Amino acid sequence: MERDGSVEADFRGFVGDDCLEEAERLAGILARFGLEVDPVRARRKTPAEIEAETGVEEEERDRVPTRE
Amino acid sequence: MSVISSYRTRIRLSPERLVGGEVDPTWRLMEEAVQAAADELGGRVTDRITDYYGRVTVCDFAVVTPEFPRGVGVRVEPSGEVVFIYDHYGGYQRVGAEIRERIAQNYTALAVARALEQMNYSVEIGEAGGGRGEARAVVVRGTL
Prior knowledge:
Number of domains of chain B: 1
Oligomer: heterodimer
Helix content of chain A: 25-40%
Number of helices of chain A: 2
Strand content of chain A: 15-25%
């Protein structure tokens, strides 16, 4: 929470779209506590950032061969 | 997926302090935020401010500090919108703004902490920065 009232949220360790659902749930509860939040920007973390947080390397998948 | 998101915030209290005979949670949070700001700045909580001429204005909450004895008031409009009122004439712009920002920052942190608790996270509140020339940020960490 910065002095100008802005908030930066760092969602860690979520899988798939879970963090987006959690962010929506949080915003709903915050409104009941008198805090309205408007998203300004969101950045998806890079695989390296996720690996640094969780220690799990994002799985590299081989391209599936296709017939021409 | 993990993301970093930024949000703009706006505080809006319940228009009525008492709801069903009990103090509304938004008013309780504001009371805590105001008290925390007063403690942090060596001040006290009151219900009135004064202007340059010594005229008194009664508010819903106010913080008076040694650096700014006129005080910063919090008034809740009928819509629930929060308005900060103070007279900064005579070189009190910075201290007035600091009290106002502290109250809003504390409110935001407390609201996030309460919301995360309701979502069954364990919550820790800390601070970052705040050194010489550095803006203070409040950090709320929620862990499942």
